[in-house]
């Protein structure tokens, strides 16, 4: 056999001898008790450390969540203020534009109304003149003329 395999076999034999000697010196029951005590103490130590860490993590998480909430509220409030300011400015501009439109609209409607009245009066004068000479012919002529004016407007 090779040297490395021989060394492994020798080490196994040494371990077996050590275990046999240990078992002879100590009873297996005592060994089991000692191992179980070691496991229990190790488990307690680990749980204590983990619980402390968990508590620290929880406290840090709460602290950071509160900080984040404050930052979010601040940002939201700032954005709301900006939006309200923008809306107020837009309302002012709209009111200015509306005032300008209201000042311009009555002037235009008054001019249009006067022009319409004047054209209607002229048409009625022609009807009157034609009615005096020939009543039946005048009615037909005005109806044709009115329909032709309407067609032109479209």
Features:
154 residues; mainly alpha
Structure description:
With 154 residues, this protein is mainly alpha-helical. It contains 3 helices and no strands. It has helices spanning 3-25, 28-133, 135-153. Helix 2 (28-133) packs antiparallel against helix 3. The longest helix has 106 residues, at 28-133. The radius of gyration is 54 Å and the shape is rod-shaped. The termini are far apart. The model is unreliable at 128-135 (pLDDT under 50).
Oligomer: single chain
In percent, how much strand structure appears in the residues? under 5%
Q: Helix/strand/pairing class, anyone? A: mainly alpha
Q: Judging from the principal axes of the Cα atoms, what is the shape?
A: rod-shaped
Cα end-to-end separation: 116 Å
Order of helices and strands: HHH
- Residue share in helix: over 70%
Instruction: Round the Cα radius of gyration to an integer and report it.
Output: 54 Å
What is the overall pLDDT average?
Answer: 76
By DSSP (H or I, 4+ residues per run), the number of helices equals 3
Number of strands: 0
Biggest beta sheet summary: none
Query: Spans of 5+ residues with little confidence (pLDDT < 50)?
Result: 128-135
């Amino acid at each position: 056999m090779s040297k490395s395999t021989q060394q492994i076999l020798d080490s196994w034999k040494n371990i077996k001898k050590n275990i046999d000697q240990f078992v002879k010196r100590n009873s297996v029951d005592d060994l089991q008790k000692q191992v179980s005590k070691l496991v229990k103490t190790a488990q307690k130590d680990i749980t204590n450390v983990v619980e402390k860490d968990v508590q620290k993590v929880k406290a840090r998480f709460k602290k950071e969540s509160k900080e984040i909430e404050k930052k979010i509220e601040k940002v939201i409030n700032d954005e709301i203020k900006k939006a309200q300011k923008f809306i107020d400015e837009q309302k002012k501009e709209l009111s200015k534009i509306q005032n300008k439109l209201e000042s311009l609209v009555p002037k235009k409607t008054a001019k249009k109304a006067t022009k319409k009245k004047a054209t209607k009066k002229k048409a009625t004068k022609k009807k009157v003149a034609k009615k005096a000479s020939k009543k039946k012919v005048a009615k037909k002529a005005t109806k044709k003329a009115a329909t032709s004016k309407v067609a032109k407007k479209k």
